[in-house]
Amino acid sequence: MTIQTSICPRCGKPSEEGLCPECRAADVRLLTCEPFVTAVYCPVCESQKRGKTWSDLQMPREDHVTELAVSAMSIHEDAKDIRVAVRAEEIASNRTACTVEVEASLYGVPVRETCSTEIRWQRESCDRCSRISGGYYEGIVQVRATGRKINAYEREVATSLAQQTEESLQQSGDRFSFISELEETKDGVDVTVGTQHLGQEIARAITGALGGRFTTHPKLVGEKDGKALYRITYSLRLPFYQKGDVVVSHGNYFEVRDIDGQRLRVFDLAAGVARTLTEGEVERLLGNVREAESALVVFTQPGLVGLMDPKTYRTRELNAVPWTFPVEGEPIRVLRDEEQDRLVIVG
């Protein structure tokens, strides 16, 4: 110890100035905890309230407990190299006791302290669930077909796309884009939505997948803060012909690939090329490729293919089509033309 070296007035150890690091650390409280912290959650959808805002951000309960316990503690500003551990115990259905242990360095001295806090779980219906339970909605998407009833496939696709669109918007943070009711009626599908944005996106998704068009029909339902409030009906009409339909025109077979108003974009099943037909050029509807049967390829020759009829088990000879590559012993998809008593290769 030199003449310039100070000594700690408390313990007598050498100190550069005033109290030594050990005595300074002993005078400081490393860790304090609030006696409790309140966690508000929705019992219906389990969303969490952070401040005044509801969030759908989900995390494992153990991680959530740790986050809440840490939020209840305060660590001295001079602490460095901080390490935190949380032990939790469920003491009631709405209370969780937590012990927080902190190890750190204060003025170069290793220290460790613990404190206790309690998480109080509070149930509260969130803003979205309150709207749903109150019957709130901003629009209805009505899915119908032109000149026919929609089939089971179209119902399934429309329902699936509506649910996927709802999930996508909610994951992007649009909490109020919910489906409050999804009803299958004898004429089609009705989707009741919480926002006009969701209604618009569902209508676009369904027409994009199944064709057709939709129109919007707003209805004034009130006024709020000087602004008119509307509910919108999205009237969606699927076309008479569907994607995948096989139609007959001038004795030839065509698969419908897209519908644009009264015009059909089709695939010539004999020539293997794309064409356009008007609805007036269609003589009759054969079926849809989703209904195709599997026929076994019995033999192949230049310009000719032999198929085993899946109904009679007899071999039928068909003209080979340039866009398929049949292999003997392998199946190929066909539709049956009962009127002409023939099989039509569709893929």
Automatic annotation (TrEMBL):
<dbReference type="GO" id="GO:0005737">
    <property type="term" value="C:cytoplasm"/>
</dbReference>
<feature type="domain" description="Nmd3 N-terminal">
    <location>
        <begin position="8"/>
        <end position="238"/>
    </location>
</feature>
<dbReference type="Pfam" id="PF04981">
    <property type="entry name" value="NMD3"/>
</dbReference>
<dbReference type="InterPro" id="IPR039768">
    <property type="entry name" value="Nmd3"/>
</dbReference>
<protein>
    <submittedName>
        <fullName>NMD protein affecting ribosome stability and mRNA decay</fullName>
    </submittedName>
</protein>
<dbReference type="GO" id="GO:0043023">
    <property type="term" value="F:ribosomal large subunit binding"/>
</dbReference>
<dbReference type="InterPro" id="IPR007064">
    <property type="entry name" value="Nmd3_N"/>
</dbReference>
